[in-house]
Amino acid sequence: xxxxxxxLAKLFVVAPRPAETFTLANGLQVIVLPSRxxxxxxxxxxxxxxxxxxxxxxxxxxxxxxxxxxxxxxRIASGxxxxxxxxxGGRDNAYTSFDSTGYHQTIAAxxxxxxxxxxxxxxxxxxxxxxxxxxxxxxxxxxxRSRTENVPAALLDEATREQLxxxxxxxxMPIIGYPEDIRRLNIAELAAFYRRFYAPNNAxxxxxxxxxxxxxxxxxxxxxxxxxxxxxxxxxxxxxGGTDLPQRVSRADARVVEPxxxxxWLAPSYRVGETKYAPALQVxxxxxxxxxxxxxxxxxxxxxxxxxxxxxxxxxxxxxLTSFGIDVQPAPGRTFTEVETAIEREMKKLLDGGVTAAxxxxxxxxxxxxxxxxxDSLASGPRIYGAVLSTGGTMADIDAWPQxxxxxxxxxxxxxxxxxxRDSGAVTSLLTSAEGGR
Length: 438
Fold this sequence. Notes:
By secondary structure, the protein is of the alpha+beta class. The protein has 2 domains: 207 residues, CATH 3.30.830.10; 186 residues, Cytochrome Bc1 Complex, Chain A, domain 1. It has 16 helices and 11 strands. Helix 10 packs across helix 13 and helix 11 crosses helix 12. The longest helix is centred in the first third of the chain and has 20 residues.
């Protein structure tokens, strides 16, 4: 193995992204990411609330409210928000995750004030009407049918998360909510959730593109500044996952064309658990199954031909615990037993034999390259800032991340694998056709 110093010299250098930040008097944190590559801007407003802030019996509120945010205010008629953005040559959308909810628009730079004025308007002046709720309920239910109930893999993933994180606990309940909760959700519940979390001091505004910090500050103070702050309770997440692990869950469904083998382990994030292992887990995921040159792909797909595809994944940005996962699509004629044996062989090989400095360096460079590309993106770049800042991270964390990844050693990668790859934190899931497993 080469020394960390010599390996570091071969790593990509990620220059700090030009970024300025300030906070309005009402607590709204503003990030400006200037870029002159094109005369456009992207505004992203991220609220520090997601589906994991819900309770069992009232799931789907965060996502439903995201839909209702497009239903208008006293100044903007229902449905006009997106139409106005489109008429001005822009595009907009929104998303809900476990820990945050975001609203974003990309538009010509000289239309920044337009979208900022409208976004600030619905931060404080959302109008919730029964007729909008009734119509949107059908939209949300259809979204769940198309993306979850008609997708066997999605149904299996729901069952897996319930076992991994603990039934009725945050991160185990689906972001979109359970159908019965969606059907009985009412205006009072939506309004209470809106008042509880939608406040400037519970949000982060990111503006990227052809603008300046001075211009954004002037517009933000004009439009967001008058919105009053409110007391927001601190969010909490469980420090433990499901009980009685390991577990195995399976789903046999006639709609399944290709079987799937997956295993998820409880893992620390940058915020909860043994957080010092998070950077090494990011490197481990890339090294072990993050590309076609990873160990899993080379062994299971190229050499043994036991799988058509094999990957590993880990998301470090979470307010609570997260997961490290391996996902494999068996090759025709290969059984789950063969797949599982091959995977466990590769895991043992890594745990017993370690990893080389060259492997770690390649994984680090893949992660660092992604960070470089994100700096040129008006989509993924701001989303990274929103995800980190809405889950307890800081600008300093974002700036230091490339150096943190570059400092990961082979020994730390193995230690991270030893920490996470334990039966006491695992759920294995099997997706098969209705004819039975393999």
